[in-house]
Design brief:
Distance between the termini: 12 Å
CATH architecture: Alpha-Beta Complex
CATH class: Alpha Beta
Largest sheet: 11 strands, mixed
Mean pLDDT: 97
Strand order of the largest sheet: 1-3-2-6-8-7-12-13-11-9-10
Low-confidence stretches: none
Strand content: 5-15%
Number of helices: 14
Amino acid sequence: MTTPADLTATQLVAAYRVGELSPVEATQDVLDRIDQLDSQVRAFCLVDADRALEAAKAAEQRWQEGLPQGLVDGVPVSIKDVYLTQGWPTLRGSRLVSPDQEWPFDGPAITRLREHGAVLLGKTTTSELAWKCVTDSPLSGVTVNPWDTSRTPGGSSGGSAVAVALGMGPLAMGTDGGGDVRIPASFTATVVIKPTYGRVPHWPASPLGSLASAAPMARTVADTALLLDVISGFDARDWAALPPTSRSFSSALGNGVFGLRIALSPTLGYVDVDPDVADAVQRAAEVFRDLGAHVELADPGFADCVQDFHILWFTAVAKTVERLTPRERELMEPALREAVSQGERGSALDYLTATATRMAMGATMGTFHEHYDLLLTPTVPITPFVAGEEVPIGWHSQRWTSWTPFTYPFNMTQQPAASVPCGWTSTGLPIGLQVVGPRHADDRVLAACAAYEQVQRWTHRRPPLLVR
């Protein structure tokens, strides 16, 4: 039976508008869903039911008066625990941060959500300091995948992805510095876009600098675009914030892909891909052909940038904890301590060399997109593996970047990149398709995802935890 927690954000707003449902009813149902399921998946590290219901009652009054406050008035939203949120601790999955302090500020995205009347539910789990693309931490334990609770949902925005997948709020905020929303989207059959860098203002600045983007997470393309409409725009606190767009992202969803030139790169020229993933992505490319796009095999033309990415990533992590004492560092998980040590060994010359690689990749992709409007790849080359591990058991490398080669390149180049479900394995695990566009073409990426979604319906298929 469908309940309010099963509805999308766009469906909730439509129901509020005609008086079929109230924000209080929807919020209470979502809170009940959290009570029923979160102990099995550990998606939340904080739930503030009283505050959420108070916000829902205010939204209900506004709707009754015919004066909704914004695009998501009364819609429940969860927040990854890296965003400053007034009144709630921001602990970032770490025992290094004391919750016993004032929390007086909202980050820009949270400010925008409040301005639009969103009902904030609580904070979702992340890896410690969001340093790796799975979701376990010394503070919150291991977050698991609702499609198979023995497996990881990916990360570091895994808590947000799991919350969305299970109807524990239709919208969620994540961040993406190397695939942190796209990877869990692929592993949980949800929809995300890592926007063009600067499209969503972020403050305080991420320790990962211009690799990281604030990002919307949802179950459908329409909801993802809606949330991006809410959180994007200018904020003076972010020195890299882009000016507002002249058109909403939601209004571009009907543009389709007819006549677009689309490159399909199943391996980027150097990645080994699981056969189930390769087959699903190939089938997705055929759908785009059927929709009228010109699809052809083409690799972007850059080599694997993982070593340069490591320089940028691990030096950023090392900078984050540089003032900690040796005793304080013992509170961090061992793998993070290893990453910090690796970052501390990097030199300024190494950093500038890695930055030069970024610039060269950006030039390569700029030229590539003169010929191709979009690029299709797998989001992740493998399927979800055992939860609580950084890499699959028996894997050839100990670092998470070894199994995420399709995502971090587009953090290097700052391009918009989305992930949408494109299939399931024979054992019922989700597979994601990555859709990449040139910088500032977020609307084109979302329109392509929407066209694909229209003919490849996936929202009816829900995780086993919801159908038991």
